[in-house]
Design a protein that fits this description.
The complex is a heterodimer of chains A (about 270) and B (about 475). Chain A is of the alpha/beta class. Chain A is built from twelve helices and ten strands. Chain A has two domains: about 180 residues, P-loop containing nucleotide triphosphate hydrolases (Rossmann fold), CATH 3.40.50.300; about 80 residues, no CATH class. In chain A, strand 1 and strand 2 form a beta hairpin. The radius of gyration of chain A is 20 Å and the shape is globular. The N and C termini of chain A lie far apart (about 45 Å). Chain B has about 475 residues and is an all-alpha fold. Chain B has 18 helices and four strands. The radius of gyration of chain B is 28 Å and the shape is globular. The termini of chain B are far apart. Classes of the chains: A alpha/beta (about 270), B mainly alpha (about 475). Chains A and B meet through helix 2, helix 3, helix 4 and helix 6 of A and helix 12, helix 13 and helix 14 of B.
Chain lengths: ~270, ~475
């Protein structure tokens, strides 16, 4: 593993909302072709870190460097530019599909920027030129290959909102992958999944790491997911980083145990 | 049965009481002028009221039976009411005959409704029914189009029908244009008529001041309106939902006020007259051609007829509307069209996918404005006169109602809604004062029975698999 050049380098990230410090001086790195998990109790600031990386919030302080095809300073980019140019894709804690559109259309929308260029800002597309049709066929093929991977080919023409919950979660990941990202940010992908679905999700994430070679940044509460597939774990509590390391080390870290279970303090005082 | 019946009776009695209490003051008596010395006197119409109240009691009881699932008592009560309404009994007024008769029909319809609904649902589930549905949906558009094309040749095509046809098609075109903005991109635009006004005044001014012809101005008018759309949209499209609606509403009013007050350019409230109509290869549609032109009648060697001009206008607006439709259908299948729909569904998700929300909305806004501009310049050419009065808020509201009633995003729904909203009030002019009442009632009924619009079905913009049962071959 190339540990010297991280995929994303979060340095001294601080996010304040008025008087509330949601993220306080957090630094960590995520490597390419690795799954980096951010864990922590509720309200620890995990999603805020995500929103800063994906441009939904502008960090109060801090530098976010992404090394994709070149270096991007994410904190200086507008929300949609991060997806468009730096190619950071994300999913949401409460699923955000386009529920009225079909499964296939959801995956086509994800390839919007590529198709827009191919359609010559719609002019070639309006004229029905071959160049656009080829690009569209390729986009459908890409969508189909992802539908095969998440086992939703038969449901391709159904509205996405009609799918069962677990399928919607998988579809959202596939949609993010259709943007051809270099970093995939997943906000609690296992929330609400049953153990079998959760195991399938593990497989999918591992295949995204190993087969597609994409770096994954993962917020998760489900420890069976985190401990089994993460290469690196960052633990946040009250907006601060309290531990970092490989899963087994983090699991034994007293600060982490304290943050999750609240034990140890009484013992230490006594 | 006992306690149930008594509660139904009690309910009917309460309804009757409310109706009687209200009716007493509305229809029970009225003041009449009985000469200058004696002043006013009361004229009682208590018999009318009594008949109506009894009908309401029976009708309400029937409706309660029907919703209680007791079909036969409801049917009998409905039949009694219907019979009284139709019978040659002397009721005080013909209106009461209608009132009682329609009440009976309503009760009968209500009592038969559940079985009708079941039968309809079964028919829709059955393979033949489903096939009929898909075939019907596919052919409906073509049948409507064929009817629209041959309408001027049929004997129906008198002055009134053609006028109405042009009017409806104008609204169909506006509806299709606004459908891009509201139906696809989900931007609630309450000031759409502003772009219509821009188009109309573009043609009015360019033709009367600079002598440009309709066909030369048409693209210009579209470009002007689109530019206005861009200029307005750029600061405004960051707003969401209701806020956007209010700003566009304000913009619509501002344009109208500018048209009224900028007298030097627009001639103010007096409007601009003497606008030339569209020409066909240089031939004008008038009895006498201006110098340097030929009339259509001379060119074709046929006698002059007033409807020739209307038929010509009809085909122009039909063509323009079809261009709007084809454009919108095509755009929907392109990435930008899918991005519009995605923005309507979830803007935040769009941003996460790297779609620029502002640019995407701007294209929808500008394209919608462009078609309003086309329609506006057609309007000016048809009326030969424009004034700010034609571009009031109610026009925006009607166009929006067409889009919403048609079913957001449905192209054929817009046609049906335009026929309903524009055509019915025109056809029912004979109803006089009750016209708008009937119109309102129709709107309420549509909203109750088709809350998501006449055609709520959304067809995917592309499919991975062949359409089931669609006979893909």
């Amino acid at each position: 593993m190339t540990a010297d050049l991280p995929l994303i380098d979060v340095e001294r990230l601080t996010m304040r909302f008025g008087g509330l410090v949601a993220v306080d001086d957090v630094s960590f790195k995520a490597q390419p072709r690795q799954i980096t998990a951010i864990i922590g109790p509720n309200g620890a600031g995990k999603t805020t870190v995500f929103n800063c990386i994906t441009g939904f919030y502008k960090p109060t302080i801090g530098r976010l460097t992404l090394r994709g095809d070149r270096e991007y300073l994410l904190e200086r980019m507008l929300g949609h530019e991060i997806g468009q140019q730096a190619r950071v894709a994300r999913t949401f804690q409460n699923i955000r599909l386009f529920p009225g559109m079909t499964v296939l259309e959801n995956l086509m929308v994800a390839q919007h920027n590529k198709l827009m260029r191919a359609s010559g800002m719609s002019v070639f597309g309006l004229l029905g030129l071959n160049r656009y049709r080829v690009a569209e066929a390729a986009a459908v093929e890409k969508a189909r290959s992802w539908l095969e991977r998440i086992d939703l080919v038969v449901d391709a023409d159904r509205p996405a909102g009609e799918l069962p919950y677990g399928a919607q979660r998988r579809l959202e990941i596939a949609r993010a992958m259709c943007t051809e990202p270099c970093l995939l940010c997943l906000d609690e992908p296992a929330a609400g999944l049953n153990p079998r679905e959760s195991a399938e999700l593990n497989e999918l994430l591992v295949s995204i790491r190993d087969r597609d070679g994409i770096g994954v940044l993962l917020i998760e509460h489900d420890m069976s997911v985190v401990m089994r597939i993460s290469d690196h774990v960052v633990v946040l509590d009250y907006g601060r980083k309290i531990a970092e390391g490989v899963p087994d080390d983090v699991r034994r870290d007293p600060a982490v145990i304290h943050a999750y279970l609240g034990t140890g303090e009484e013992g230490a005082d006594a | 049965m006992g306690p149930r019946l008594s509660s139904l009776l009690k309910d009917a009695a309460l309804t009757t009481f409310v109706a009687a209490a209200l009716g007493l003051f509305i229809v029970g008596f009225r003041t009449v002028d009985v000469g200058s010395t004696k002043g006013l006197a009361f004229d009682y119409e208590l018999v009318d009221l009594a008949v109506a109240v009894v009908a309401i009691f029976v009708g309400r009881l029937g409706l309660s039976f029907a919703s209680d699932g007791q079909r036969w008592p409801a049917l009998i009560l409905g039949a009694v009411l219907g019979a009284v309404g139709a019978a040659p009994v002397r009721l005080p007024s013909t209106f009461l005959h209608w009132f009682v008769g329609l009440a009976g029909l309503l009760v009968i319809a209500r009592s038969l409704w559940p079985s009708a609904e079941r039968a309809f649902g079964q028919a829709r589930q059955s393979p033949q029914g489903r096939k009929l549905g898909t075939v019907g949906a596919r052919w409906l558009a073509w049948v409507l189009l064929a009817a629209a094309v041959i309408l001027p040749i049929t004997p129906l095509a008198d002055q009134k029908t053609m006028d109405l046809g042009v009017l409806i098609l104008t609204y169909v075109m506006l509806g299709w244009g606004l459908n891009i903005v509201v139906g696809l991109a989900g931007l609630l635009d309450l000031g759409y008529v502003a772009f219509y006004a821009v188009g109309a005044y573009s043609y009015a001014l360019l033709s009367t001041q600079w002598g440009l012809g309709f066909w030369a101005v048409l693209p210009l008018a579209g470009a002007f309106a689109a530019t206005f759309g861009l200029v307005l949209g750029f600061p405004v499209l960051r707003l969401r939902g209701d806020y956007l609606a209010i700003v566009t509403l304000g913009f619509g009013e501002i344009i109208r006020l500018v048209l009224i007050n900028w007298v030097d350019l627009t001639n103010g409230p007096a409007g601009i007259g003497g606008i030339p109509g569209p020409t066909l290869f240089g031939a004008v549609f008038a009895e006498n051609a201006p110098p340097g032109h030929k009339t259509f009648a001379e060119m074709m060697g046929v006698p002059f007829d007033g409807t020739q001009r209307l038929v010509f206008l009809y085909y122009i607006i039909l063509g323009l509307a079809l261009i709007t439709n084809l454009f919108a259908l095509r755009m929907r299948r392109l990435p930008v069209g899918r991005a519009w729909e995605a923005l309507r569904e979830d803007e935040i998700a769009c941003r996460a996918l790297g779609i620029n929300p502002t640019n995407t909305k701007l294209t929808a806004f500008a394209i919608g404005a462009m078609f309003a501009g086309f329609a506006g310049s057609f309007f000016a050419a048809k009326q030969r006169f424009v004034s700010p009065e034609s571009f009031v808020f109610i026009e925006s509201a009607i166009i929006l109602a067409i889009v919403v009633l048609g079913g957001m995003g449905s192209q054929i729904g817009v046609v049906l809604a335009a026929v309903l909203l524009i055509g019915l009030p025109e056809w029912f002019r004979e109803l006089g004062t009750y016209r708008m009442l009937a119109f309102g009632l129709a709107m309420v009924l549509i909203m109750i029975f088709r809350p998501r619009g006449l055609i709520a079905h959304r067809a995917p913009s592309l499919r991975l698999h062949e359409k089931p049962g669609g006979g893909g071959g």
